[in-house]
Amino acid sequence: MKPSVCLSCIFALLISPLLYAIGGNGSGLGSASDLPDSLIDIDHVYEYTYSDFDKAKIIMEELRKRGEDSEYDLDRTEGDLYYNSGHYYTAIKYYGRMMRQDSLSNDPQAYMESIHRMISCYDCLHDEENGSKYINLLFKVSDKEGSRVMESIAMFCIGKMLYHQGDKERAFYHLNEAVKMMEESDYKYKFDNLTYEYNMLLVLLMREGNYEEALKVLDKLQLLTSGGDEGDVVKMENLSDKEKKTYYAQRAVLLFKLGRKKEADEAYASWRSIGDKYAKDDYLIVPYLMDKKEYATVISIYKKQEAFLKAHSDTITYHMKMVQHILGDAYNAIGDYEKASQYYKQLSVLVDSLKMREQKSTALEMAEFYDKSERELQLQEEKNRVRTRTQMFLSVSVVAVVLLVLFIYSIMNARRTKRKNLAMVRTIYELISYKDDFEKARARLLMMSGDSAKEISEGEDEGSGPDDQTDFSDSYEGRNKEDEAGVADMKAKLQDGTIDSEELAEDRSIFEILDSKITKEKLYLNPSLSREDLVRFSGLNRNRLAKVINRNTGLSTIGYINKKRLEYAVEILMKHPKYKIAAVAEMCGIPNVPTFNRLFRTKFGMTPSEYKRVR
Question: pTM of the entire structure?
Answer without folding.
Answer: 0.52
